[in-house]
Specification:
The complex is a heterodimer of chains A (about 350) and B (about 375).
Chain A: H1 18-35, E1 39-46, H2 49-56, H3 58-78, E2 84-88, E3 91-97, H4 101-121, E4 130-136, H5 140-143, H6 146-162, E5 167-171, H7 173-204, H8 208-223, H9 229-279, H10 283-291, H11 316-344
Chain B: H1 22-27, E1 34-41, E2 45-50, E3 55-59, E4 62-65, H2 68-74, E5 79-80, H3 81-86, E6 91-94, H4 113-130, E7 138-145, H5 151-162, E8 167-172, H6 173-180, E9 185-192, E10 197-203, E11 212-215, H7 219-233, H8 241-251, E12 262-267, E13 270-275, H9 277-285, H10 288-300, H11 304-311, E14 314-317, H12 326-338, E15 343-345, H13 352-363, H14 366-372
The chains are: A alpha+beta (about 350), B alpha/beta (about 375).
The complex binds adenosine-5'-triphosphate and magnesium ion (MG).
The site of adenosine-5'-triphosphate has 22 residues of chain B, from helix 7 and helix 8.
Amino acid sequence: MTSDTNGTAQRQAPRLSITQMLSVIRVEFHRARTQRYPLCCLMIAVDGLEAVATRDGWQAKAASMSAAYDLLKRIAREHGFIGMAVQSGDRIMAVFPNTATDRMGQLGNLLLEAGRAQSTTSVSGQALLFSLGASHNLLAETNSSFEGLVESAGRALHLATQGGGDRYVMWREAESEIEALRVDLAAATKTFRAEQQTLEDEAGDAGGLQRAELVDKIQRIFASVGRTPEIEALEGQIIELAVAELYEERRKAVAAQMREHARQVDMLERRIAKLTSVIGVTEEELARVMAMKTIDPGVASIFKTVQGLRGDDAQAQAKKAMMSTIFEQNLAFQKNKDTLAVAVG
Amino acid sequence: MTKNSTADIGETTGGNASTKTSGSTATTKKDGGVLYLGVDLGTSRTSIAASNGQRVTISSHVGYPKDVVARKLLGKDILFGDEALQHRLSCRFYRPLASGVLKATSNTQTNDVEGNMKAAADLIREIIRLAKPRSDELVYAVIGVPAEAAIHHKDAIIKAARESVDSVMLCSEPFSVAYGLDMLDDVLVIDIGAGTTDLCRMHGTMPEESDQLTNTYAGDYVDNRLAELIQKRYPQAQFTTQMVKEIKEKHSNISDTMPAVVVELPVNGKPTSFDVTEEIRTACRSIVPHMVDGLAKLIATFDPEFQQRLKNRVLLAGGGSMIKGLDTAIENEMRERLGTGKVFRIEEPVYGGSNGALKIAHDMPGEYWEKLK
Ligand SMILES: Nc1ncnc2c1ncn2[C@@H]1O[C@H](COP(=O)(O)OP(=O)(O)OP(=O)(O)O)[C@@H](O)[C@H]1O
Ligand SMILES: [Mg+2]
């Protein structure tokens, strides 16, 4: 590692500010791009950092981060990885020029092992577990901009964290493609659902117009012949038959269309499943990341119904009047605002 | 094969401040109960107390990472509280409720009004999220705001709150403190915040403008005084306002018998010990006369028959009231200038405002909430 910009006072290496460091990294990124050599970006987070801070105070957080930084520096030096790193907040970002993806994977695993081994070697006796996210500059979105590279490493890091941490994830074509497929699938499902609805509606009245035309035609033919009760009965039967036939035709067409939709969805899903198994995360993990939300159901209120002031409150009268004043003020204000908005908009 | 997809799947670790929309609120069936929220929106600190037992306080800071790289490093789209303060250099940093920003009466600091309003809105959403409301509950909130908050800011506050609650009311901050303590009759509340000290006279009905006074002799003023005094006595010491504030919060005391305070401050980067006992006492004391000025005004204009009673019922609230010996110092000054005085401290200065707002929310009749939906 060439330098750090952590800002902690005790480091003796030549110190650059984060901004300076990032511009050096950017230069490196663009050089790799124009001279076409591989470059990897590694994003590091310490697992359970919040818990550490809660348990041992916020200083412990800073201590863990700088232990992580030192470890990265040591492992990189011992195994001949040359790169640059910055630490800010709860993340460390490192960039390694001239490093291919498999080499990056080696570094990732070395780091994970060294972190786990800290339980026996460090003073604190605590293991340092990492989530590592990496990206390389060979995809369209990671090659065209530095932001894209960092962004992809961030996604990979998120996959690693969401998968339970203590792991390394490289953002490769597979991940990238899965993401694209997911977008396709979501879009396809949406259009199919809408189409299906229209088709079903149409089938429901057997293509309204068509039916009306058919019935019209039959009636016109029968109008030209002499009318007997038998002929009228026959007319009725023919119309009934023709309409039933029309229903059946529509139903078959709709069913065929649905089958085609199902097939396309199925194909997309199967491709996603296959790619997912390639990258070694489970479908659920991936789905969780895609869902983007950590759903917290919340904590229930102790009240099941609206309360209001208790009648036996010692100052009930005065309080009632105050509640009413607060309400009136808010009504005047909030209503007034609404009218204003209407007047302007 | 790969598509330049813009789906932002990496952005997830941050506070999901914008995930709950009013649309989704409206469509959820709310038969799970009624959650009341009391919020105290302060210059330096925002607190919430909720009827599900949650109580949270964060410092009123909001930061937005400056660029994609900073955002990735910080792992979030928005930072709040101390975390925002800590990373303010890599963020667009706001103190959205600081004086001059949300308060109409102070100097118009017009730069980036929009940004401050957005930050205020995000802060409100965050503090409500931290109270962990359930989606199947009706949520009713009372928000205590500085009495002199400008109309368009009140509007921004209401808009932001509405995204996460079903109905919301604003109410003046010192009033909610008094209401929370059931002290509605002949009481003088002094709420010492960071930017302002708010005095409010209670006499059994809703206080009006003439019952309230605001001055800027509050926490920030003490910080500045303390910094000046230390600078004057120890010109070689290097420190920031933030460091001074931390020293104050740890040692604030104005009693004559306060223990000596020795702190470490860097001199040319080397930690050095300094005795700042006298500086702390002087700085903390400097707000006392101004406070008694305000008290005197509110007492003099009160019904003479009840003036005596008022003097004996002064209530200290707000983070600034945590200065040790402040109650006695105010009593002494009152005795000297007004003949008599009795000062009480509230038990929980940090949650005084939000507890009171929660109580108001609870006592508010259901039909009022309905009408403001
Ligand atoms: N132990 C302490 N001793 C003295 N001052 C303290 C102490 N703890 C906090 N403070 C000060 O209290 C102030 C914050 O008080 P509070 O949280 O009530 O303000 P606020 O409500 O955010 O501000 P405002 O009411 O002006 O909008 C800060 O200036 C802080 O330094
Ligand atoms: Mg306050």
